[in-house]
Amino acid sequence: MEQDKIKGVNLGGWLVLEKWMAPHLFDGTNADDEYYLPQELSEKEYLARITQHRSNFITEADFLRIASAGFNLVRIPVPYFIFGDRKPFIGAIDELDRAFNWAEAYGLKILIDLHTAPDSQNGFDNGGISGVCKWAQEPTEVEFELSVLERLAKRYHDRTALYGIEVLNEPATEKMFKSMTTRYLPRDPKKAAGSAAITFEFLYDFYQRAYEILRPILPNDKVIMFHDGFDLSKWHAFFTENDFENVVLDTHQYLMVAEMEGAELNPAAYEKAMNKIGDQIAAVNRYVPVFVGEWTLFNSYTAGINTQGGINPTQQEFKGAKHLDPAELAKVYQKLWQIQVTNWNRGIGYAFWTWKLNIDTINEPAWYGWDSWAASRALDRHWINPKDI
Amino acid sequence: MEQDKIKGVNLGGWLVLEKWMAPHLFDGTNADDEYYLPQELSEKEYLARITQHRSNFITEADFLRIASAGFNLVRIPVPYFIFGDRKPFIGAIDELDRAFNWAEAYGLKILIDLHTAPDSQNGFDNGGISGVCKWAQEPTEVEFELSVLERLAKRYHDRTALYGIEVLNEPATEKMFKSMTTRYLPRDPKKAAGSAAITFEFLYDFYQRAYEILRPILPNDKVIMFHDGFDLSKWHAFFTENDFENVVLDTHQYLMVAEMEGAELNPAAYEKAMNKIGDQIAAVNRYVPVFVGEWTLFNSYTAGINTQGGINPTQQEFKGAKHLDPAELAKVYQKLWQIQVTNWNRGIGYAFWTWKLNIDTINEPAWYGWDSWAASRALDRHWINPKDI
Asked: PANTHER family in the record, alphabetically (chains A, B) (predicted)?
């Protein structure tokens, strides 16, 4: 057992909405993302949905269970409007305050992950607004994003539970931007006009500015974390030529991305792909600590159908999924857990995506296989055990 | 391990609301119960709160976890308006339909428990309207209640997951009625006027009528269950002089009630009280199977304060609770679990009250100790283990 490694789970879908993770929140609307939800509801109705969702989806009991299961960290995606200064969105700083108290009571660390930006840094549904990626081109909003980071740091810098702050989730550089534009069509093409990939040059600059703001506020034992922009190979100069204190590089590694990049849809191919990524992680980890901040068990083989990179049942209907025998299914998932954790531990550890999903695989069979995204369910099925590895 | 015993949990606070179990649902209103909540919200806001609560509070994942933990049954409290024919209340039959599918997928049985009646059968907050107990005096509503039972039986009679139907939860006979009137004051005294205890004569008659309606609809292997009206000693003639097929007597046994009846506030006194109740259960179980449909770990000793029968922090402020050392606390709870389950197994088994509570013991310290009402949390703390006993 690797006692010193980070064993985390993401509290996805809680303070940053993703329709597929809690579809009922979007019932009766045409909204596909956080941006359009308030446009389809009255102010009071929106408030009622959001407050009920937040107070139910993740609670004290989840922190208790996460700690009891053997995890030691939660990565908490937060939206740019967390401080409540971007109407009509509802601030979530009280929820984060409470989460810090829970984490400290149950001995967990918190990685705050700034997951969205105004007009989006990636155009994913989880970036707040699908099909739009203009934030990096809007200097005022870039400043705004930095101000959110500064306020978060000032609020939590002296909290025992604070592990660190990740300055921006999944900025879409060239390759990912292209893939996004085919997968997430904008609801309002006018709003999407002018969207563009984020360049690594922009990222280096933005990360440096964020570092300069955060480091003087955060004690040296608190981490400042940067997402790799979907390319682990772009960071050697950035980390070796700058004199950073206690920084970490975050990389997200999904089996479905490996599939998109050519891996066959079977466990042996997944193992090979993950071992190759593990080699990369080990190499980069020599000059900057590498953290796998998102990954999961989900894949097309166990889902029984080619999901084309994880396109989900709220986006497209899948029919005819092949169901593996439950014992065989468990064996595959257990192996995928082992292989992946072993590779992530060639860096400093991981955060599984995600803790909880409010989907119904029984009454809505299209969700078959999607339960493997949820660590809470995987624990009950004995597919994973953070105490083992 | 008693493989043949019923090891159940209640899905309390889900389809029948109790403010203390999910206080956020009542935020910003003066409502203390299900009856007054819709009076304080717009129709859309009420709908939004109720649907978000229901789709989040109990989900497929709970059924998975309950089964995985070693329980074999869920007792589901349902309201009289479950079929959606009593405005402004929102029907819940779709939720119950889904629960049957979940139960069958995960190998659990369901005991449907008709938990409320129009104008209430007990005046508890969990009876729907606090301080009012007039249902039994309203013949039309008595007929209505029977029609709900008939419709439930017709809908689920052939479902594998159906264990049985409990015809009425906790009718307040004389002694409990008196205690209710001092504890639950009516919001509208005019509406409460004419409230009275339910007599055992009424209950015998109502139960017999319910039996005659349900038995022809339900297959013989499905149970018809009757609550004891808070007195195990009143049922010998009823069950020996009638020729009932597959009926069960439900009795609710709370440590806090034992306290109110004179037990000292310490583990040894609780053990003595529970053993005495176990003797009663064994005696009655000779002529009718006895089920302990509600009980819990909660008590004043571990809560560190005299809660006077379980008065909760939404009703009264408690200060100065003594906190036991966590290891000692665990020892006491583990012992209370053992003693109680052992005694309930002198009948046919139990359903723990309750599976889940959405309270926050960290940010609202008044709730210290109240987490012991939730089996889900007790599992994480290793206070209980249905696989052991």
From this structure: GLUCAN 1,3-BETA-GLUCOSIDASE I_II-RELATED, GLUCAN ENDO-1,6-BETA-GLUCOSIDASE B
Q: Encode pLDDT of A214-235 as tens digits.
A: 999 999 999 999 999 999 999 9
Whether the CB-CB separation of B74 and B63 falls below 8 Å is answered with: yes
Could you tell me what percent of chain B has a pLDDT over 90? 93
Any chain A CB within 8 A of the CB of B60?
A: yes
pLDDT the model gives residue B320: 83
Is the CB of B56 less than 8 angstroms away from the CB of A24? yes
Beta strands in chain B (DSSP E): 6-10, 73-78, 109-114, 162-166, 223-227, 247-252, 290-294, 349-352
Is the CB of residue A380 less than 8 Å away from at least one CB of chain B?
yes
- Judge whether A264 counts as a catalytic residue: no
Dihedral of the alpha carbons of A178, A180, A182, A184, in degrees to the nearest 10: -160
Q: Dihedral of the CA atoms B301, B305, B307, B313 (nearest 10)?
A: -120
The model's pLDDT over B295-320, given as tens digits with 9 standing for 90+, comes to 999 999 999 999 888 888 888 887 88
Compute the half-sphere exposure of residue B135: CA atoms within 13 Å on the CB side of its CA: 33
Mean pLDDT confidence for B12-35: 96
What amino acid occupies position B321?
A
Kindly report whether the global pTM for this prediction surpasses the value 0.95. Answer: yes
Residue A53 to residue B53, Cβ atoms within 8 A: no
Q: Choose the mutation target among B362, B381, B382 for the interface with A, i.e. most A CBs under 10 Å.
A: B362
Q: Catalytic site residues of B?
A: 170, 294
> In the 3-class helix/strand/coil scheme, how is A150-197 assigned residue by residue?
HHHHHHHCCCCCEEEEECCCCCCCHHHHHHHHHHCCCCCHHHHCCCCC
Q: What is the largest CA-CA distance in chain B?
A: 55
| Phi and psi torsions of B352, nearest 5° | -70, 140
| A10, A75 contact by CB (below 8 A) | yes
Best interface-test mutation with B: which of A52, A66, A96, A370 has the largest number of B CBs within 10 A?
A: A52
Domain boundaries, chain B: 6-16+50-388
Q: What is the ipTM of this complex?
A: 0.96
* Structure token pair of residue A276: 């190759």
Chain B hits for A49, Cβ within 8 Å: 48, 52
- The answer, for A29 touching chain B at a CB cutoff of 8 Å, is no
- Burial class of residue A4, CB neighbours in 10 A (0-12, 13-18, 19+): exposed
**Torsion (CA) B29, B34, B35, B41 in degrees, nearest 10:** 40
Residue in A41, A49, A98 closest to B360 by CB: A98
- Quote the strand ranges of chain A, DSSP E: 6-10, 73-78, 109-114, 162-166, 223-227, 247-252, 290-294, 349-352
**DSSP 8-state symbol, B232:** G
Distances in whole angstroms, Cα of residue A16 to Cα of each of A10, A27, B352:
11, 17, 35
pLDDT band at A1 (very low <50, low <70, confident <90, very high): very low
Burial class of residue A243 in the structure, from the number of CB atoms within 10 Å of its CB (0-12 exposed, 13-18 middle, 19+ buried): exposed
The set of residues, in sequence order, having a beta carbon less than 8 Å from that of A212 and lying 6+ positions away, is none
DSSP letter for each residue of B133-149: --GGG-HHHHHHHHHHH
**What sections of B32-188 are H helices per DSSP?**
43-57, 60-69, 93-106, 139-156, 174-183
Q: What is the dotted CATH code of the domain comprising B6-16+50-388?
A: 3.20.20.80
